[in-house]
Amino acid sequence: MLLINKISYFNYCFKDYLIFNSKNKGSFSKSINRAIYESNKRGRLPIFSKDVKFSGVLATSAPKGAKIFIVSSYASLWEKYIRMEPNQRCIYEILLHEYPCHLYIDIDMNREINSKIDKNMEKKLEDEFLEECTSLLLELGATNSKDSIKILTLDSSKGKKLSKHFLFPIDGVRFKNNYHCGAFVRRIRNRFEIKYGTDYEKNRFFLKKEQKGKKKEDQGKTFQIFDFYADLAVYTCRRNWRIYGSSKGDENRPLYLSGEDNTKTRLNQDNFLACMIQRIDPSESENINLFECLEMNETEPYSTNNTSFMNTRDDIPLKSDNSELKHYYETYFPFDDIYKLFGQNNTREFFFSNKDNGIWKKYFFKSVDEFKNKILKTVPSTIHLGPFVDGKKQKELVFDIDLNDYRNVRTCCGDSKKACEKCWKYAQFGILVLDRFLRNYGFENILFFFSGMKGFHCWVLDEKAKKLSNKAREALVKDLQLDNLQFNIIGKKRKYVSDIVKNGFDYKKVIIEQNLKNEFDNACNKFGLELAICYFFWPKIDKEVTTNITHAIKIPYIKHPITGNPSKMIKNDASDNPFCYSSSDTSLSENIKEFSNVINT
What is the pLDDT of residue 584? Predict the structure, then answer.
């Protein structure tokens, strides 16, 4: 954690390393390393930078992008900052990837080349984007309360330039580091790709941007590309992030909170502190929860530069050098059965992704041979399904349960990437409840699949399930979900619990294995046995997966990119424990054969 409550009048500028050329990474690295050394010596004071052009020192001979570095307490920086002339305020917070931070997002748009987007459309895009971010924060469990999410909008837009920063302070929560912020924004990008498609000329959240040619033959040329609404290049190690009230270089576009008059506004110290990305208030420093947002394929986040998307489907190839994964596809993957179950003659969206670069690409397949050939050629790390796209969108009804959501009632495994045998009882209870619940609604074609890591998917393949609207799916989830201990078990839900226990579900053994006897006994005394069982074992559903027809879901028998375990079918009576995973060829082949028999009968 950053120690930010140390107040000193330390204001150290590195005159020995005053100027660095932005093209000379060695010079920059040397300067920032010295800054970190001096910061650590003084109790880990924050680090800032300032554009040399406005530093008053060697400004006339400074190369473009040159900076000095400042190590200072927030209080000391504020005292100097408030006395600067407005055109001298060109200060940046150095974001160190070793420390937690608020979620931050950078929005830039050239209004001149995006002339079709007027002020009203700018507002609509912003509102929809922020709503999507809020929804994803809640879905991923960064917080349980929408009211705890505050959004600060800083605006330095002027003329043909739209430029905004969004900052998401969440009460008592910080992202683990800025790489995790980048993973979050890549998830947001993917949601808008699924929602509006990957024809980026038609996707409202991909804007025209100018890019200089990188190839030798293109040097000096400028190209127009389509790029995502949010800048993905700002989640790198030791990032310079412009602070409240500052302009960039000589642009004279100070960054103020939305609604402030940047021609008259007097700097506000509370706003100055609130808009710091890595600042932790002393009053909350002991009660901070670190939120981890993994990549979409559940790998660790990474530092990345922005990836631009051209309006083609095959502009960036997936890697195909993973011989082990290719061997799995060639030897085991049930191409015919998967295509028969999910592919519909070029009307179904398949999303291929690669764990090394996070790229998602959409395909349609006219035949199983085309489906097979593309997989063997590109060797994707994961394959997800979108909806049918002929006419009204349709998709199977899918329920996703992840054992990571049982942390408050499960003591085994912790944050281990793999589940243990003890975890299975929670999944088992969830499978038994879901199967009974869905059959009570008249669904018959229900299959369960182990995810390969710490969860499972329930696929409802009945034709009437595919045609359910989002509202109908929401009604199903509402009927299934139980909210903590504030619910009443009546009718069929009470019967689910009693039937499962009578049929041999040994909840007492699980409670003892998890060292939760005292907690369980207290719940029984307060609410009764059936209610206590529900609180500890009732399935915890990822609502977004079920209710959003456009949400992509991983197909069965794909290898999990972290564990290497293939997804595989689970019996509806939950008699087989996939967490006691057998990786033998015979076991996997038998499971695939059983799957084939099920869907072909």
Answer: 54
